[in-house]
Fold each of these.
Amino acid sequence: MNHRDDRFIRPEWAHFDAAQWRKLVDGVLKGAPFEKLIGKTYNGIATRPLYERAVDVQSIAGRPAAAPWQIMQRIDHPDAAASNGQALHDLENGATGLALVLEGAIGARGFGLPANQDSISTLLNGIYPDAGVGFELHAGPQSRMAATWLADAIKVQGFDPKKCDIRFGLDPIGACAVWGAGVQDCDEIAPAVTDVVRKLDDDGFRGPFMVADGRVIHDAGGSEVQELAYTLAVMLAYLRKLDGAGFALEMARCMVYARLASDADQFLTMAKFRSLRLLWARIEEGCGVRPKPLFIAAETAWRMMTQRDSAVNMLRATMATFSAGLAGANSVCVLPHTLALGLPDSGARRIARNTQLILLEEANLAKVTDPAAGAGGIETLTREFCDAAWALFQEIEKAGGAFAALSANLIQSKVAVTGAARQAAVGKRIDVLTGTSEFPNLHETRAAVLKAKRIFARRRDDNEIKFPPLEPIRLAEPFEALRDKSDQLLARNGVRPQVFLANLGTSADFTARASFAKGFFETGGIEAVHSEGFADPAALANAFKATGLAIACLCSSDKQYPAHAAAAANALQAAGARHIYLAGNPGDLEAELRAAGVQDFIFAGKDALGVLTDAFGELT
């Protein structure tokens, strides 16, 4: 039948205005307040469920039109020869750039190339830096000569510096921020750094040379606004140092670039990347130069990585890459999904590389410039991020700039508050880490990694400048610590710590709450032992006693609890239960249930981490 149904070509909802959409939403809410659907970022910026299309906006210039981003592959094997083999393989199989991570660098995660000239020279064997390969250096205090080592190796091997695409990654402020210390004040360090920049520039390297690394803030649990303000302040600090060293502003601003973390929150990540370009353009205009597109390197976020169910890291990294790519990142480095477990093997490295290749070659994400332009939600977030970040940036500037603000603990104190709120939300399972704080698998097989011991550099005692460091975190670590403890008990005793699910009533009554309780306890490595549904408290008590367990959790419906929960709790206590939980919010029944022996209640929004930690105290 050759008939076109216009309902599928121009559906009714295409003509709805905001008021009509709101009416439909209110119908679904059934009297619940609309504000229930409004979220907030960790800087208090509202995220609404509905936005009108933005008008009179322009796309934000990032990469050249339809140009792909650089596919950066992390090179961090402690054996330089092995790193060379990995690099050659990566370049032969789709990588277009190499992120050279030296030991002790920001983001080294305990690995990295040895900090010496020989390792750099060995790494370059068989690689042609003047043949279109992008390089980015990640150095730290003990590898502060890395830029010079790389430049010397390139010249010794006869490559033309002018044809090399190298971002040298000099970031003394970032190194001090992570270490919480510096041998000298920033003003004292600056001449040595700008001298290196001048030497590289004189040799013909085109840079950029200095990076403002926003990962410092993101890794420590900071917000998008804090990451933007810090990055902007560090970039301006470097621009001032270059200007003071005699570089023309037109040249100096091209010697500085930014590196941002990209995480699995698509809209916030996209808005963050877009905001930084607008903020930097405002700085350029204030300096009297015409804005140019800023080079932004992206790396998928460390703090979202998990050791448990590490395969889920692939999904998180895919969303992070998707977000950074659409937001115009010039390069993207995907952390292999097993990095939290150890040094990734070839399989994990292949997946990291192919994540980008698929998004570029099959999904064609780079074909459209700034696809978020005009999208009401992302445009609004971009504008609000700019306003909030600019205000914090001004506060940092009033304190004397990035280094002075770090020395005064201004930046760290704000990040600490945000990080604590973020960790509390993870502990309450409000911010979900799939495979760790939700949907755990106690029987998972851990992914394989290469044999290499993590080595973390220690702060020198002779540092003149000391202040609180911005230490990196992984949000999953507290849950993983409980899972590790469970594994240790399993290895020692042949059985994990367990909780008895005391189900009341029929399957229809208890299944939902029993499933919730199982997931709740197993996120901490406490295995749930199921039972049939019981109506008789004595039968329930006998079943519990037969297991020989110490703790139990009552599971049923709100309909069953008023009539049966108290009697069941009494029976469990008489049968020797040391600690009794109830799945659900008790409401008006709390006093009665506590009097009957229920010590704690588990429900959505409960501090799961606190409950689970206390539970281990009952079990060990």
Amino acid sequence: MSDVLLVAGVPPQPGFLSSAVHRLQKAGARVHLVGAVDTEDLPADVRLDGLCALPGDIAKALPARAAARATPAERVWTRIRRERWAREQARNADVLVALDPHAIYAVWRMAQRNLGADARYGVQPAVQAVIGRQGTPPPGALQRLANNLPSRRMVRRNLTHIINSAPRAAIDAVTARPIMRSKAGTKLWLAAVRTPKIPDRLRTKVARQVAKGMDWADRPEGEALILTATAEKLRTPVSRARMLGDAASRELKAGIPPQDLNSAVDALLAIADERHRAGKQPAAANLLNRAMKLAFDRVLHIDRLTSPLAEDPEGFTAPFRNSLAATTVAAPRGRKQPAAPPPTDRPLRLLIATSANDNFLKLIRAHYESHPQVEIRYLDLAADSKLKSVTWAATQMLEQRLSAEETPYGANAEEQLRPHLDWADTVFVDWCVAPAALFTILDPGTTRIIVRLHSYETLSRWPYMVDFSRIDDLVFVADHIKDLTTTLVPYLQGPDAPRMHVLDNAMDLSGFQIDKPSDARFQLGMVGISQVAKDPLWAVEVLRQVRRHDDRYQLLLVGGDMNPNVSVASRKYLDTLNRELEELEAVGAVRRFGPTEDVPKALADVGVILSSSVREGCHCGLMEGAASGAVPVVRDWPFFAGRPSSARTLYPQGWVVGSPEEAAERILQTTATEETWRAAGNEASAHALGEWDWPVVQQHFDRLILGNHVV
């Protein structure tokens, strides 16, 4: 005779329970029951061999110590496993039976501990198991929910029924966190989504639900694996492309570089090209935008210490160069007439435009607002709701570029922007992002267009949405940024490319000259640690190196912390950094000052200024530190190291080092005595003021913007 343990997650209907017990007993079983049972509702004709009645709300109750995200099925198990009687019965039972969806997970957990038991969902399968145990069933014929989970054959045979017929709670139970975290669970569901001859609709439904379970289990890599495996079996190319895109998106959301990013991007671009050829431009734009967002996600390029755009720029962007839709968007359309020369009979009308970021415009604006031969207007595209709505509308922007005729978006952009273009002689657009793309959607007429590209933009999708044939002058902040950008964007090497210039950022460095106290010699400083690319952990290693020789050295960190909510990758880096800093703060080796409006004051005690970044345009904090008389120590920025233009060509010989060991050596040499330290600092200050101070850089801007207005 077999022992059967019935598990109830919610109180069973009296008639259903009576029928279940009688059928199992007739098949030759002793029947025990545990779970949500109202003893007053037990039918009089039910004679159980054992009962552990628990409150009827166990699927809702959540013990204080349990995880806040527990599902009802997990709550049922959490409550039942506290009962000694239930644990003993589960160990000794021959058949474990879930009477309702909320009980499935508890039965699965019991079956893991009782490998000889059969686990079933429902009364009829339980009766069959009892009858089957009276004979000798062939190996693998019984559906199991133990360590090896259901056989692949059973999953394939029952998949349609499970997904289409089972209540949502049942699906939640078989995708509970512990199942999803197990290798067996992953194998089970990989077998399920790879099952042949399943309609795309059903296969997609299964994959979405399993992916949700993986998400609950904090397994983004498993989530992506399930979605990728599903995509391989989908018959419809567009469904396959979207599923591959979803898989890559899940990994990026978790701060993980996707394992199969290339397949996702290629698939999305292929369907975008197909839709473009068919004249379905809204769909093509949507797919192209999705491919661009995946390929240029900040997890890949901004929030890491490396980037495929730096490691293999041409190889990484090849799919876009080979895509009809992408090349159509970027193709030069030119302008109907050239930009007019600066007026000679009135002041130059200068429009300065950006979108919510004027960090590098203040000196430029102030200069031209007081210039007698300039009439200036400032346009913040984010401050006007109508302009903002057309500026960052990437999909509509792509649709406009893909379409042979003007779209409603194009007409709206024309209406919003044309008055500004008609007024201006010259437009200076700061940052080569959405505003630059917006201004080049329209033919500028005779208005001259100048765009400044810093460094972030090169790692984004925006340069591939800009019509550079409608830009007259493209300004870079450094030669190494220019070199990388022209490698990534092939149109900048063509006959329609704009004139290109390299102009330093506008900085007032004269106010940074400081008479530093003697003990500043042992203070290493960093200004700005708010991005992973600043890599302050490199500076921490430099600090450790110099403290091995002299524990008077300290590291002063000026600026706000990284935002942990920007991405998972940023949060992980920040967690590591904080652990390192807390250890050093405890011994007085690190001091954090947070953000400040008075950077010169913060630099007063800094004797050595560090640039530990993996990439920079022109590192303003480093330049300000040099102007203050601190000794510059610059990491050979890995994104550009070894290239014709890099940190070594931007800064004087001797400033740049290749490793923390070299950095420590330079620090120890230049700070060996107060005399050598002050001499090196004075030399750095003279160079900074002579090369990068605003009175020097202003002349370059005047030549660019005013032309024959320069006096």
Amino acid sequence: MKKIGRSLFVLVAAVGVAFVIQSSEPETTLTNYQGTYTCHPGVIYDPASVEEVEAIVASALAEGKTVMTGNRKFASQIDAACAGEGQVQITLKNMDKIVHFDAVQKQVTVEAGMRFNDLNEFLRAQGLAVNMVTELGTFTIGGMLGSGTHGSTLEKPSNMLADYVTAMKVVDGQGQARVLTGDLLNAARVNLGVLGVVVEVTLQLEDAFKVRASVNGYRSDDGLEDQVLDIARSHYSANIAWFPGLGRYTTTIYEPVPLETPGNAYNAQADVSDLEEFFFGLLFNAAHEFPGSGLQCLAASARYQARADSYFRDLETGRKVSDPVGYSDQMQYFKCKDPNRCIWDRLPIALQEVAIDIEQLPDWIRDVRQIVAAHPKTCFPLNGIYFRFGQASKSYLGMSAGRDTAFVGIEYTLRQEGKKAPKNYFVNLEIEQMSLRKYGARPHWGKNSVAIFEDMPSRFNRWPEFLQAKETLDPFNVFTNPFWQRVSGEIPLEDYLTPGCNTRGECYCQTDAHCDTGTSCQAGLYFEDARICRP
């Protein structure tokens, strides 16, 4: 990191903001939402103003420290939002307010620590909405821009919140607040936290609207590859959960309806009872520990049925609704009754998601059929393989940057002790490596494992322009962390090739030593360029 003298630190103190050098809470660790990843910065600050953020960054620069922004309970499986060990961590939990609202221009400016669901509650009361609606509303606005959080629509201009930003205020690498527009804004729409601290965001809104949801289950997936793009393109929003091990799939379709349409439904797919959670916990654990895949396929069958039935409820009565209509945000995103006790916090679940050119999706499905056929009785017990869709983004590093995109997600259960590879993990890895190496897939920045982020600069046409923006906004490289060093290639992934690294998600195996006991490193059964640890 480039160094500057103490003069800047003295200047910061002189203007009367040096008080922020004291962290507001004694804890110096951050943990992700599942408690499976812990980060160890040297200090954590919780600023309440732009001026405090400026002072923190200026002080870090003077002291030769690096800075990263991320919550104490961060929504990532890895260290994407963590400061390096002993470095400076900022949370924006105290910067969660609406700064300015313009009903005539249909714009709102918010602090970056505001939760998306809180923003939607405010906008709904004003008769306005955000075009893009993700499926989980509890993310912060800044976090959504850091990782490129998305929903599913090909009808709207974008499925990413990032593309509805008209202006963004950041504190740059020299501790100065500046408003980004034009090319710098396009670079910062999906910024990984390495261009500065995003402190305020202005969003373009539209009139509020309602949607009608239709949920259907199909007990045969014959010809899905020939229908999938028609499903995506002929509706306002479509989500598809494909269970190839069962030969089934489900669709959730949303269509806009006039605001006066009766209905006050909400998406209740996270409203899992204690009994249901207990059942799934037993089933998932048993599927790992017993030989064969029968229990895993039984769990997949249960999840298929849950997704094939309506999972929408009435806000007032709590009863299931067969023909659900409600406000777009309440219908398309779900939240937990108790935000501190969501099912994914208590059951060990991991996610991997990649984005491919939408035109390649039919061929990708055909290839996955071949992989599953090569690994008999493989089932995907949570949401199957989950498809969502979006138009090309003007962001430089968004998953859909420059191309209409199909987003492909696989969720899988972990063993309770978290030390062994999940059941049939090697099948997921063969699909993952095929997606990367045959289809030029782009991994989701906030999900996935260490290993998946290979050759990232080659996957984005505007990666050089992003680096130019970083040089402009952060000339002393204050905003960096181990995650950025890996994905940018500064730290080669080969450094993670250590014994057992495949089990930890840190590598694709090259030798048997990288695998768990009882498995060896082999070529993929269908995609032979893959390297997977199989029994």
